[in-house]
TrEMBL record:
It is an enzyme of class 2 (transferase). One of its GO terms (biological process) is amino acid metabolic process. Its EC number is 2.6.1.-. The keyword Ribosomal protein does not apply. GO terms for molecular function: pyridoxal phosphate binding; transaminase activity. Its cofactor is pyridoxal 5'-phosphate. This is Aminotransferase. It comes from Thermodesulfatator atlanticus. PROSITE patterns: AA_TRANSFER_CLASS_1.
Length: 400
């Protein structure tokens, strides 16, 4: 048949995180008492001064196309933020503003990877990395890690995964879904391998300010500045400023890569929304207390969630050190049966059971490449977290 859709969509799955969050929100809207611990977004509202900047932009008629790579003030503000956070100097031409960090990652994969290339993705990984790599025709090569090692892969495993076809690696620390932070030693080891094998490094720093150890952002360039010519940093306002719906993210790196990303974007989506860019500018240049306040709240909730989950027999998790996610091993309950006689086989059936029986939405770990675990978000009020975990404990106790 001629009228068939392209091969690239045949295996393409919807984003599990977006799908489950939407399902939980819709159940709630129908009046079902669902506790949504699946959300991959801060529960806080966007700070007022940021909203005000967007309203002002509308009133001023700032509603037309902007340069594809973003308004100059925002690109400068991104450089200033990188200087503040990482001590690195970049020029505005080395930045490109996209429709969320997700589009920045998508564009980068299109710009850097060819069919046949292999790209290292460290498991557990954010759901969208493998499809983003695959949509560029390249092959994600998954490098495993274990809960016992706080989900930091062994450098030997990484070295073994590198072949003549390996073209790049994607790093994300603090990590979605594990809530863990790679050690400086690990980053230095990765840097050495990347340098030796001449790999592109995509450093997804979207949670870099949501860390609970009081330290500032750290990525691979912090420990190995020599990697500058082969590294592209990705970040955005979604998580740091509670701005997921505004869709502003960016990539920062070597000028020729950034210019290629801008060409891709210029032939696909053009500039990110003009008024959202003004809002992002206010976020980066305005008062930063909102960031530390949200981080303090997430830290408190991480401790609360960790304490409550640790009281449930059989569950295992490393204490979250950043982000707003805990990654919890439920596998001690696999093989048991629900009151209706269904077997809990994997993270999907456990996720379904928790939604049906406990009315708690979580994200099955299989979406992140780790079927023993489920992701539990603590971007939620304390009472909801307590209620949610209590219900999870009660539902687990009913398994036989
Ligand atoms: N990277 C990671 C690890 C994420 O969790 C997210 C959240 N969706 C993104 C990138 C994309 O963020 P956004 O497109 O909202 O900027
Ligand atoms: N990053 C968030 C999550 O992992 C938001 C949803 C998405 O874009 O995948 O849940």
């Amino acid at each position: 048949m001629k009228r068939k859709m392209a091969d690239r969509v045949q295996q393409l799955k919807p984003s599990a995180t977006l799908a489950i969050n939407a399902k939980a929100k819709s159940l709630r809207a129908q009046g079902v008492d669902v506790i949504n611990l699946s959300a991959g977004e801060p529960d806080f509202d966007t700070p007022e001064h940021i909203k005000a900047a967007a309203i002002e932009a509308i009133k001023e008629g700032f509603t037309r196309y902007t340069p594809v790579a973003g308004i100059p003030e925002l690109r400068e503000a991104i450089c200033a933020q990188i200087k503040r956070d990482y001590g690195l100097t970049y020029a505005p031409e080395e930045t490109v503003v996209s429709c969320g960090a997700k589009q920045a990652l998508f564009n980068l994969a299109q710009a850097l990877f060819d069919p046949g290339d292999e790209v290292l993705v460290l498991a557990p990984y954010w759901v969208s990395y493998p499809p983003i790599v695959e949509l560029a025709g390249a092959k994600p090569v998954i490098v495993p890690s274990s809960l016992e090692k706080d989900f930091e892969p062994a450098l030997e495993a990484l070295a073994e995964a590198i072949t003549a076809k390996t073209k790049g690696i994607i790093l994300n620390s603090p990590s979605n879904p594990t809530g863990q932070i790679y050690s400086s030693e690990f980053l230095a080891g990765v840097a050495e391998l990347c340098q030796k094998n001449d790999l592109w490094v995509i450093s997804d720093d979207i949670y870099d300010k949501l860390r609970f150890d009081g330290r500032g952002p750290e990525n691979i360039l912090s420990v190995a500045p020599a990697l500058r010519d082969q590294t592209i940093m990705v970040n955005g306002v979604s998580k740091t400023y509670a701005m997921t719906g505004w869709r502003i993210g960016w990539a920062v790196g070597p000028k020729e890569v950034i210019s290629a990303v801008a060409r891709i974007q210029g032939q696909s989506t053009s500039n990110a929304t003009s008024i959202a860019q003004k809002a992002a500018l206010a976020a980066l240049t305005g008062p930063q207390d909102c960031v530390s306040e949200m981080c303090v709240a997430f830290k408190r909730r991480a401790e609360l969630l960790y304490e409550k989950l640790s009281q449930i027999p059989g569950l295992k998790l490393p204490k979250p050190r950043g982000t707003f996610y805990a990654f919890v091993d439920f596998s001690a309950y696999y093989g048991r049966r629900t009151p209706a006689g269904q077997e809990i086989k994997d993270s999907l059936s456990m996720g379904d059971y928790l939604l049906e029986e406990a009315r708690v939405a979580t994200v099955p770990g299989v979406a992140f490449g780790e079927d023993r675990a489920l992701r539990i978000s603590f971007a939620n009020a304390d009472e909801e977290i307590i209620k949610g975990v209590t219900r999870i404990g009660e539902a687990l106790a009913k398994l036989t």
